[in-house]
Automatic annotation (TrEMBL):
The keyword NADP does not apply. Its EC number is 1.1.1.-. NCBIfam families: PRK07231.1. Belongs to the short-chain dehydrogenases/reductases (SDR) family. Pfam families: adh_short_C2 (PF13561). It comes from the Bacteria. It is an enzyme of class 1 (oxidoreductase). This is SDR family NAD(P)-dependent oxidoreductase. It comes from Glycocaulis abyssi.
Length: 289
């Protein structure tokens, strides 16, 4: 039985941990050849050794346009084509108050989360045009569609990434290049621990507990993990999504949709208390359990 990505060549950035690592593994399992970039050289080389000819690795700083181009060139050198680009590299940043924001922090976040994706598209699109089409995916965030789902600068960058996705999708459509992004909700990855100063190993060790606690963060009582996003990426990369472009796919367990009603009354309890109304009696009168 064939995989959903049989014969396709994919470039994935930020592939040595978290969402990127899960995506590399899922893409390979579905039949793709993957060329992966990351700053974590030792981890990347270990993954390439483990997966053999299905995975090539290059140390890549996506804030450097030359590194992005070199990673894409590696895919062409190895496989002669490029079908999929997954702009996934990113990190969590401190949530600076507005009055504390500095130009260097702004530039770092925008270059890492926005400019890197744009330059990835810049260097990938000519090869995809030559191949007659392709799929470009970027990791955005629910922080880009709602307020207080993430740090300020991160949220601004992710909102811009969503709009860039939509804008570029229209420009690329005549070439049969689909451009989409994924908006994860609370996904248990090492990014949270690293944001608070933990090293990579310690941050990864905390992931199971984060996933357990994450089950209480949204209406769906399930903790999100990197595989949830990797599965979404496989869909967008595959021919199953041939008619899908310009979309910001939300994968968040219902986080941005709304909250589960509070069994203790929630806002209604506060309002009836202010009004001097007996909420339990009112519910009984109206047959509300």
């Amino acid at each position: 039985m064939g995989g959903r990505l049989d014969g396709k060549v994919a470039v994935i950035t930020g592939g040595a941990s978290g969402i990127g690592k899960a995506s590399v593994e899922r893409f390979i399992a579905e039949g793709a050849h993957v060329v992966m970039g990351d700053l974590e050289t030792a981890r990347g080389e270990a993954m390439a050794q483990f997966h053999g000819p299905k995975l090539a690795f290059r140390t890549t700083d996506v804030k450097n346009e030359a590194d992005i181009k070199a990673l894409i060139d590696l895919a062409i050198e190895r496989h002669g084509r490029l079908d999929i680009l997954f702009n996934n590299a990113g990190s969590a940043e401190p949530d600076y108050p507005v009055e504390k924001i500095e130009a260097g922090a702004f530039d770092h976040v925008m270059h890492l989360h926005l400019r890197a994706a744009l330059f990835g598209i810049k260097h990938a699109s000519p090869h995809m045009q030559a191949a007659g089409g392709g799929s470009i995916i970027s990791t955005s965030s629910v922080a880009g569609i709602g307020v207080n789902y993430g740090p300020l600068l991160y949220s601004i960058a992710k909102a811009a990434l969503i709009h860039m996705t939509k804008t570029v999708s229209v420009r690329m459509a005549p070439h049969k290049i689909r451009v989409n992004c994924i908006n994860p909700g609370l996904i248990a990855t090492a990014v949270f621990g690293r944001a608070f100063g933990l090293d990579q190993d310690a941050a990864e060790a905390a992931q199971p507990k984060l996933e357990e606690l994450g089950a209480f963060a949204q209406p769906l009582p399930v903790g999100g993990n990197p595989l949830d996003i990797a599965n979404a990426a496989v869909y967008l990369a595959s021919d199953e999504a041939r008619f899908v472009t310009g979309q910001a796919l939300v994968v968040d367990g219902g986080l941005t949709t709304g909250t589960v009603p509070d069994p203790n009354g929630g806002t209604a309890a506060i309002i009836t208390d202010i009004l001097g109304v007996d909420l339990a009696a009112w519910r009984a009168e109206h047959g509300i359990g």
